[in-house]
Specification:
The chain has 437 residues and is an alpha/beta fold. Helices cover 46% and strands 16% of the residues. It contains 17 helices and 15 strands. The strands form three sheets. Strands 1-12-11-10-13-14 form a six-stranded parallel beta sheet, with helices on both faces. The longest helix is centred in the first third of the chain and has 25 residues. The radius of gyration is 25 Å and the shape is globular.
C-alpha cells in the first residue's frame, strides 16, 4: 500500500499562500446538465403534480406505485420500524434523540421566546416569535441511510412548535431503512413519504394533491436536491445549500496520532470532495499523524474514497504556532473544527468562525454527528463566516410588536414627519401628523 500523497505545507514557505489557496479552492458550479434536468422536473411537478412526482419516482428510483398516496408511510409503520430494529439500535436512537431534544429546548429558552416592554411614554415595543406552520425535511437515501439527519432536522422543528413536519426519503427499488423510519417516529415526524430527488423538493415547495405544500425545506441531498432547493427558494424557505463536508483539526501534539488520523478519515470517507486539514506547530507530530494515516487506511472499508479525498483536497500544514493556526482556521471558517489540545479553552477565544467547535482530545467530531446534542447540519465552504448551525430559530419567524401611546405619538410623530418629508413621502408624513395635537 503506497503512502497517502496528501499535501504538506508550511507557513514559512515562500509559496505557502499560493498552495494554501489551491487547497481551499472548490468550484460549486453545478453541472449544466443537472441544472437543466432539475428545471424540467420542477416545472413538470408544478404543472402535473402527483402524476409528475410518480413518473419521476418510477424512473429514478425504480419504485413502481399506483399513486403518491401509496408512498406515504403511516405512523403505525414508523412505530413498527421502532419495534423491529435491534434493542441496541433502539437505545441509541432514543438516547441520541433525548440529547438533541434537550439541547434544542435550552436553545429555545435562550433565543426563541417572545418579549416586550413599554418605554417611558407608555409605548409598547416587542417581538412576537411564532413557529412555522409546516416544514419539509429531506432525508438522503440510496447510497446510505441517515437516521441522524432525521433527528437533527425534525427535533428542533418539534421543539420550535412547528404544526406539521413532512419527511421525504428516497427508497430506491422500495428498500426502506428501518432505522430511518424508527428515527422519524422517535423524532415526532407527522407525515412521511418515500419520495426523493428534485421531484420531492418540488412536491414540498409547490404542493400536490397528495403532498402538502410546506413553508420551509431543510436537510441535505445530492446535486439534484441542492439545485432544486436553490431554485425553489423564494417560493419556500430553505436552510442552506451545503457543499462537501469538512474537518479542520488544530493539534498541539498531545493527542495520540491515531486519534487525529481517524478524525481526518471521518470526514474524508463521506465522498471524494470532502476536505480534511490538520494545522499543527509540531513538525514531528505531523509526521506521526501521516504515518498513522498510512497504517490505518488499509483497515477502512471506504479506503478508496478516503484516499481520493485526502489526496485531492486534504492537507497537513505546519504552522509557526498555535496562535497562527487559529488565525488560519478563521480564514478557512470550517464546518467542523476540532481543537485537539491539552488546554483547548486557551485557544477557543481566538476562534471566531466555525460551524461547530469540538474542544479537547476526547471530543471527536463523530460524537457531534450523532448524539452530543448540538445540530450536525452546519455551514460549509467558508459560509460559517456569516451562517449558523441549523437550530430552533430556523423553524420560527419573528414579528415586531408596536403599540404607540397617545403621548408617544406626539414625539414619534414629529420625528417620523421630519424624516418622511426629507424622503419626499408626504402621505407618510401626514399619517403621523394627523395624530399630533
Amino acid at each position: 500500500m503506497t503512502s497517502i500523497a496528501i499535501r504538506q505545507l508550511g507557513t514559512t514557505e515562500a509559496d505557502f499562500q499560493t498552495r494554501f489557496e489551491q487547497v481551499l479552492h472548490w468550484s460549486e458550479d453545478t453541472d449544466q446538465a443537472i441544472e437543466e434536468r432539475v428545471a424540467h422536473i420542477l416545472a413538470d411537478v408544478r404543472k402535473r403534480g402527483d402524476a409528475a412526482v410518480l413518473d419521476c419516482t418510477q424512473r429514478f428510483d425504480q419504485l413502481q406505485a399506483d399513486s403518491v398516496a401509496s408512498l406515504e408511510l403511516t405512523r403505525d409503520e414508523l412505530r413498527a420500524a421502532l419495534d423491529q430494529i435491534t434493542p441496541a439500535q433502539r437505545q441509541a436512537v432514543e438516547a441520541a434523540a433525548a440529547r438533541v431534544r434537550d439541547y434544542h429546548e435550552r436553545q429555545l429558552q435562550a433565543c426563541g421566546l417572545s418579549w416586550q416592554y413599554r418605554d417611558a411614554d407608555g409605548t409598547l415595543l416587542g417581538q412576537k416569535v411564532t413557529p412555522l406552520d409546516r416544514v419539509g425535511i429531506y432525508v438522503p437515501g440510496g447510497k446510505a441511510a441517515y437516521p441522524s439527519s432525521v433527528l437533527m432536522n425534525a427535533i428542533p422543528a418539534r421543539v420550535a412548535g412547528v404544526g406539521e413536519i413532512v419527511m421525504v426519503v428516497p427508497t430506491p427499488r422500495g428498500e426502506k431503512n428501518l432505522l430511518v423510519l424508527a428515527a422519524a417516529f422517535v423524532a415526532g415526524v407527522h407525515r412521511a413519504f418515500t419520495l426523493g430527488g428534485a421531484q420531492a423538493v418540488g412536491a414540498l415547495a409547490y404542493g400536490t394533491a397528495t403532498v402538502p405544500r410546506v413553508d420551509k425545506i431543510t436537510g441535505p441531498g445530492n446535486a439534484y436536491v441542492a439545485s432544486a432547493k436553490r431554485r425553489v427558494f423564494g417560493q419556500v424557505g430553505i436552510d442552506m445549500i451545503a457543499g462537501p463536508s469538512e474537518i479542520l483539526v488544530l493539534a498541539d501534539g498531545t493527542t495520540p496520532p491515531d486519534w487525529v488520523a481517524m478524525d481526518l478519515f471521518s470526514q474524508a470517507e463521506h465522498d471524494e470532495l470532502a476536505q480534511s486539514i490538520l494545522l499543527c506547530p509540531d513538525a514531528a507530530y505531523i509526521a506521526q499523524v501521516h504515518a498513522a494515516m498510512d497504517r490505518l487506511l488499509p483497515t477502512m472499508p471506504r479506503q478508496a474514497v478516503i484516499r481520493a479525498s485526502l489526496e485531492g483536497r486534504g492537507a497537513l500544514i505546519h504552522t509557526r504556532s498555535m496562535e497562527e493556526a487559529c488565525e488560519i482556521s478563521n480564514r478557512i471558517a470550517p464546518e467542523h473544527l476540532e481543537v485537539s489540545s491539552a488546554d483547548p479553552h486557551r485557544w477557543e477565544p481566538l476562534l471566531r468562525h466555525a460551524g461547530a467547535i469540538f474542544l479537547g482530545a476526547y471530543t471527536s467530531e463523530s460524537l457531534g454527528d450523532y448524539c452530543a446534542g448540538p445540530n450536525h447540519v452546519l455551514p460549509t465552504s467558508g459560509t460559517a463566516r456569516f451562517s449558523s448551525p441549523l437550530g430552533v430559530y430556523d423553524f420560527q419567524k419573528r414579528s415586531s410588536l408596536i403599540e404607540v401611546s397617545e403621548a408617544g405619538a406626539q414625539s414619534l410623530g414629529r420625528i417620523a414627519s421630519e424624516l418622511a418629508h426629507g424622503e419626499g413621502l408626504q402621505a407618510h408624513a401626514q399619517a403621523a401628523e394627523f395624530r399630533l395635537k
